[in-house]
Amino acid sequence: MAGTMIDTDIAVVGAGGGGAVLALALAQKGIKTLIIEQASGPPQGLRGEILQPNGQHVLDRLGLLSKLPADSTRTVRKFHFCRVGGERLCTVDYGELPAPYNRAVVTLPNVAHHAILDGIQAEPSVTLWYGTSFLRLIREGTQVTGLVAKRGDEEVTIRAKVVVGADGAFSKVREALQIPADLHLYPQGYLIAILDSPLPVTEAKYFVGKKTILGLFPAAGDKVYCFYMIPTGTYDKVKAQGLPALQQAWTVIDPALKPLFQRLSDWGQTAFMPTGRVRTPTWVADGALLIGDAAHAMNPHASQGRMQAMVDAMTVADLLPECLAEQDFSAATLKRYELARRPQVTMLQRLADEQVLFWNTANPVLGFLRDRVFRTLDRNPRLRYRVLTTTAGRRETAPFSMIDRIMAAGFLPDPCASNITAER
Ligand SMILES: Cc1cc2nc3c(=O)[nH]c(=O)nc-3n(C[C@H](O)[C@H](O)[C@H](O)COP(=O)(O)OP(=O)(O)OC[C@H]3O[C@@H](n4cnc5c(N)ncnc54)[C@H](O)[C@@H]3O)c2cc1C
Fold it and tell me: Rounded to two decimals, what is the model's pTM?
């Protein structure tokens, strides 16, 4: 039998990219919220830290974007896609987007996340419990009415009008809701490193080759994030081969950056991140819903996983005041959130999977087509702008129609190639 009993309006499980934003957005509306997080404190490890324009917009709405410390953020406008060896294939320029979100923002590890968590701690209507794990749901009939969590050695019963599962791709809340999930683990993940650059690096580079991907993103303080694709389960093997072997592999990809790669001096500068995709038939139940990776994890090629979790959170935060006013927490009403969010998420999941097929490939024909598409994009501002607005989180529909695809592959000329005014 549970010991302590707590009453709240909204209970959020997981203080990651989506849950923390939701808790802060609800706090700013004065909604009583309890957020539980199994970790013992704010995260310290390495992760993808690129804030796309839609993520910047969310932080702006929360009043945080302009407060991110200037010495921890870096504006990046140009992303160069290159072949292994150095040849440039295509350059995408965020400067083409409408201001003020006409840039990507790269932060030092966890900077935006810590700002959100600090914001939560300052809000009286939200309580954040670290070291607290979700155990099971409480139901009355079909309606979820709360959850039981383990806080230290104690079982705590949390009564809530809505329980939000923001607990990542392996969501236990999803499991407890008996929502079936198609969880696909990709055969490749990413070795991430953060290096002090001896050279000024102001523009991002993304190398593609035969089963090879290396992304280099400039961060504040002349640091550079490296994302290197490796087969899942081989991180220890890569480490056993030693730092010089990894430096050498990266130097083959871009010999000019050898001095940067030599700054990799300790495995403590690295981490491994597996990649997965989640598809579920529904994100809502009576009295409960899922956001972020719990509902729809996607391959990081879309550079949108965390951004989508943040946008989910804002959509839910916009809907819940109405649910509370009407005392209606039915799946039918919560479904409005899912209907608003599914089109963009599904499109991004599909796009990221298509990129997996062409970008991660060892097949020379697929590699040839990939490079050909990049080269066409470089000459075709209209199609390039479509790709940019998709990665920036500004599109809900697929960037290319069937005809666009044929033109992107270079098999048809594009009479409107120079016209991006119509796209804006
Ligand atoms: C290599 C790589 C690079 C990436 N780069 C980017 C990028 O550049 N841009 C981008 O937008 N996205 C990126 N992503 C994706 C992004 O990291 C995720 O999509 C995002 O973190 C999802 O947020 P979330 O809140 O749904 O889940 P998470 O951030 O995973 O948070 C889930 C939280 O729930 C907690 N939790 C889990 N189980 C329980 C439990 N039982 N009880 C209590 N708490 C629990 C966890 O501790 C965690 O804090 C990348 C991912 C990878 C793998």
Answer: 0.97
